[in-house]
Amino acid sequence: MMLTPELFIQHFFNALALGSLYGLIAIGYTMVYGILRLINFAHGDIFMLGAYFVFFSTIAFMPAWLAALLVAIALLIMFTTFRDKSKATPAWYWGAQALLLGLAGYYGFISPVEFQPPWVLAVFFAIAVTSACGIVVDRVAYQPLRDAPRISALISAIGISFLIENLGVVVFSGLPRAVRQPDMLVKPIIANISAITGNADSVVRISPMALIVPSVSLLLVSGLLWIIYRTKPGLAMRSISKDIETTRLMGVSVNKVIALTFALGSALAAASGIMWALRYPQIHPYMGVLPGFKAFIAAVFGGIGSIHGAMLGGLILGFIEVFITATFPALSGYRDAFAFVLLIVILLWKPTGIMGARTEEKI
Amino acid sequence: MSFKKLLAATGMLLCMGIAAQAAEPIKIGVYLPLTGQNAFGGQLELEGVQLAHKEMSQVLGRPVELVIVDNKSDKVEAANAVTRLTAKDKVTGIIGTYGSSLAMSGGEVAEKAKTPVIATSATNPLVTKDKKYYFRACFIDPYQGAGAATYVMQNLGFKRAAVLKDVANDYAVGLANFFASSFKKQGGEIVVNLNYNSGDQDFTPQLTQIISQKPDVLFIPAYFAEGAIIMKQARELGATFRIIGGDAMDNPETVKIGGQAVEGFLHTTFPYDMSMPNMNPAAKKFTENWKVAFPGKDPNVNAALGYTSYMMFMEAIKKANSTDREAVTKALAELKDFPAVTGTLTINATHDAEMPIGIIEIKDGKRVYKGEITPKM
Question: Interface pTM (ipTM) of the complex?
Answer without folding.
Answer: 0.77
